[in-house]
Amino acid sequence: MSEITAQMVQRGRGPTAEEAARRRKLARDVRSARERLTSSTGLERAFDYELLRVYAQYRLGAFLPLVLLAFSIAAAAVFWVPVALSAAWCAGVLLVAGTVAALSRAFLRQDPEAISLRTSRRRVIVGELVQSTSWALLVLMLFRIDAANARTFVMFVLVIVAAVTTMLAATVPVAAYAGLLPLTAATASLLWLSREAESVLLIAMAVGAQLFFLALSKHLHTSTVAALQSRAEKDAIFGELEQAKANSDEARRRAEEANLAKSRFLATMSHELRTPLNAILGFSEVMKNEVFGPHAAPSYQEYSTDIHESGLHLLTLINEILDLSRIEAGRYELNEEALLLAYVVEECRHMMALRARAKNQSFRELVDPSLPRLFADERAVRQVVLNILSNAIKFTPPGGEITIKVGWTSSGGQYVSVRDTGPGIPEDEIPTVMSSFGRGSLAIKTAEQGSGLGLPIVKGLVDLHGGGFQLKSRPREGTEVVVTFPAARVMDALPAVTGDGAAPPPRPVRAA
């Protein structure tokens, strides 16, 4: 039968984070490709609308400057043509510019979902063509004027209008072409009236400048599209973050509900399990000790012993699960008092001495006798030391040595170190050993009895004290567990009594 891995369990619960991200990216790509196929410009529909919207904003904002430019050109043209003709040309330009501005305002006020992008784009192209043609009519107005400065003036105006047109219509490239075509044709028509080399060179430069403005508008269009894509990606990321936050809040709510249900279940089951378990332990102990007389068969005593030991193991497991549950839920309350760390460690060593002696193991103690008292929960500290010593005895081979160290840390705190001469733990198995119900390959191969909760409980209790936990191990080099307590929990010893019998006030707890 194949082994069920954590990846398979996770896959059964739903897609992983990487799979979900890949699916979202694939969905965006498919949606983008579909919109490009249905778009006449090869871009997404949202981009088509945004480009037209930017064009409308440009045209609407440039209306007043264009009015001033038309008035200025018309006023300057009266030096060569009659005022009525100049005013008529100016009125025509303003009429077309006003119509384009009005269409742009109407476009911006419409609902984006109700707009026909194809029709709007055609209106933009026709509007640019008509508007540029109205400006280019300036050539016909001054065509009969035989003055070099008049032709220079017209050429200068056409270059300015070409620059303005290509910049304003840059977001709609076809409209930029349509707007530049009449202006370029009008500029080239000046060659019919110019025979001097200098005039021909100026006209050629003017046409080249107009083409340069067209190339510049292409770059502006590319930059605008890139900015829209960047904004779309940013909006997509923000949307994903909001969705992830909503999912996280929902997951947190469910986790809190599950944690509350787990706590209620454990509180109920602990009572329901301990009641019959105490009866099993009591009766099995009576049978094991043959209180009411010897057994008829010797095997009955072995069975009662096995029942009693199994019951004790089950009771220990229940207590560990409850302790870990309270620690994870933040409901483990510390009953702090002043204690001697070296004394607690010595008591724990004495309690575990019988188990170590059964495996012919020896203890080597290196304890600093000058350690002052520690402000901590004695029951929790005792459980920490017992769990560490129990693991060391369990995995140290017969005849091995266990080293216990108690002393000062470099920051002024106190530490407990337990090092064994066992086979060690591979580096890749340390996270497994530190997880709840996690057991290393050595424990599984040797069928060592245990729930896999000892080290997680130790780390949780040490964290509640604000201390540190460190596991050092290498294969065939043994394992060392170091537990540290912060300097803030170390209490200075009371000062000696002075000669007059008066003692100074006690010193406060040493700061961290």
Automatic annotation (TrEMBL):
Domain Histidine kinase: 268-489
Sections of the chain in a coiled coil: 234-261
Keyword Ligase carried by entry: no
Region Disordered, annotated ranges: 1-20
Uppermost EC category: transferase
Transmembrane spans: 60-80, 86-108, 153-178, 199-216
GO terms assigned for molecular function: kinase activity
Keywords: Coiled coil, Kinase, Membrane, Phosphoprotein, Transferase, Transmembrane, Transmembrane helix
Signal peptide range in chain numbering: none
Catalyzed reactions per annotation: ATP + protein L-histidine = ADP + protein N-phospho-L-histidine
SMART domains associated with the record: HATPase_c, HisKA
Protein's UniProt name: histidine kinase
Organism expressing this protein natively: Methylobacterium crusticola
Gene name as annotated: rcsC_14
